[in-house]
Amino acid sequence: MKKIEAIVRTETLPIVKEKLRAIGIGGMTISNVSGWSKQRELHLQWRGQPVAYDLLPRIKFEVVIPDSQQDLVIKSIIESARTGEHGDGVIFVTPIETAINISTMEKGDAAILASDHVNSEPDK
Questions:
Q1: pLDDT tens for residues 27-78?
Q2: pTM reported for the whole predicted model
Q3: Position 101 in a domain
Q4: What does the alpha-carbon distance between residue 111 and residue 106 come to, in Å, rounded to a whole number?
Q5: How many helices (H) and strands (E) does the chain have?
């Protein structure tokens, strides 16, 4: 299993999210984050005065996937988040040792893959 973390421009949130959903990613975590990279700061004006923002708002996507989906997920994120300008974002890939679904106790790939059934009420 792999954990893909992608930090992208905030305006690409709906595009990246829908692209990941369309390729069958069953779950993801999305966070609002701030940071800087090579760009360092953004120069704007506020009330006629120059202002430099050194922490830029971004969106962070986190998905845990089977190894077989790694290339597809990375390609999908790049296609939907890339504008060709500085600050498009970055993707990190890290190995995951195991995953456990707390409600079903499934482990490994079964814990992270979307299932086709809906849990019914437990027997009384």
A1: 899 999 988 776 665 666 677 777 766 778 899 999 999 999 999 999 999 9
A2: 0.78
A3: yes
A4: 5
A5: 3, 6
